[in-house]
Specification:
single chain; 2 domains; 6-stranded parallel β-sheet; 7-stranded parallel β-sheet; 357 residues; Rossmann fold; 38% helix
């Protein structure tokens, strides 16, 4: 099959981009895969950042660019057996035999008109990254979407665990689209850890693995400089291989996206799935994460991790693990087991069944 893939945010290098380019990777093993994009360096950056093998894909002109005439786009899409698109709520009209729409987050503000309904009828299948996302997407589009969880590799390093609390995520002090400050809540978690140190916690480090864009560098340096007197470390723009080494050393994993926000009104501010949480679990780190969004699908509270609703709970539950090594060990073993259901083998099988059905 000749398959085209389009992700309008490839240059963002986030979870959605990893998901879409992993689809490209696994399908390129048996199909002719084209990625619609004009800057080859962006694809190379994703390949390096996420340790993917994209050597078999072909990068072709981005026919979904607003600069491309509609007639040309339609003519080009006619050549494809299937096209897979990461959607922000919009649905393009194409002439490929099949059209698959992937959605990564709730889209509560999308309005469906008669023209959109005609486009929806043309879609072979919608698929999402979590039940959390699905619950909103199905209502928004009036459909029954399929959930295909993001894949997590099994790259756990056999290294000795250290007294490390880890968090992983993009650094965006202010999200341009939403205006949301401290998008991944890194500064919030830093404040909690500082409080724990002031209260007497010793021999533990907080490690923040972050990707930072050039335009955010000054803001990031300011946050970093405010941590110099504390056992807080930053890993910046590291590859998946380096991250896995850190995951493998960490004992506890923190995640706080969505904290303090009105998630009833803005559900997209919560983590839509939480792939870094699963990666941490796959390396034996115990997740202590916010009780919101896709995190609740990943973590079974008290069995393979802990969920919290307030910063005082985050602090309290983390200290409980630190003071109880046996409980920490048990939850770590259970986390390893839970992470297996999100492996790449399951993902690959689901994608092939979706495309070839």
């Amino acid at each position: 099959m000749k398959i085209g893939i389009f992700d309008p945010y490839i240059d963002d290098i986030g979870g959605g981009e990893k998901y879409m380019m992993t689809i490209a990777e696994v399908l390129s093993g048996y199909h002719n895969v084209h990625v619609f994009w004009d800057v080859k360096e962006d694809i190379k950056n994703i390949e390096k950042r996420f340790s993917l093998d994209l050597s078999r894909i072909k990068i072709v002109e981005n026919i979904f660019s607003s600069k491309i005439p509609v007639a040309k786009k339609l003519f080009r899409t006619k050549d494809y057996d299937a096209i897979i698109i990461l959607s922000d709520g919009s649905i393009p009209f194409v002439l490929s035999k099949k059209l698959f729409i992937h959605v990564q987050q709730p889209l509560p503000f999308v309005k469906i008109n008669s023209k959109t309904k005609l486009k929806i009828a043309r879609v072979s299948r919608f698929f999402c990254n979590s039940q959390f996302t699905k619950s909103y997407i199905d209502k928004t589009f009036g459909i029954k979407s399929l959930v295909i969880y993001p894949p997590v590799g099994n790259f756990r390093k056999k290294v000795k665990k250290e007294n490390i609390i880890l968090t992983v995520g993009r650094f965006r002090l202010r999200d341009v689209l939403s205006g949301l400050s401290d998008f991944k809540k890194q500064t919030t978690m830093i404040s909690v850890f500082k409080e724990m140190i002031r209260d007497g916690l010793k021999n533990w480090r907080f490690v923040l693995a972050v990707s930072v864009k050039d335009e955010e560098w000054d803001a990031f340096q300011k946050v970093k400089n405010e941590c110099t007197k504390f056992p807080i470390e930053f890993l910046v723009n590291k590859s998946n291989i380096t991250l896995w080494e850190t995951y493998s050393k960490a004992k506890i994993y923190w995640h706080a996206s969505g904290f303090g926000e009105d998630l009833g009104k803005n559900p997209h501010y919560a983590e839509h799935f939480g792939i870094s949480t699963v990666e941490a679990m796959g390396a034996g780190a115990v997740p202590v994460v916010i009780n919101a969004g896709g995190q609740r699908e990943i973590v079974d509270d008290g069995e393979n991790g802990l969920l919290w609703d307030s910063l005082s709970e985050l602090k309290e539950k983390t200290l409980t693990l630190i003071k109880n090594p046996e409980k920490l060990r048990t939850l770590s073993e259970n986390a390893l087991e839970k992470a297996k259901i999100f492996d790449k083998e399951h993902f690959t099988k689901a994608i092939y069944e979706l495309i070839e059905k």
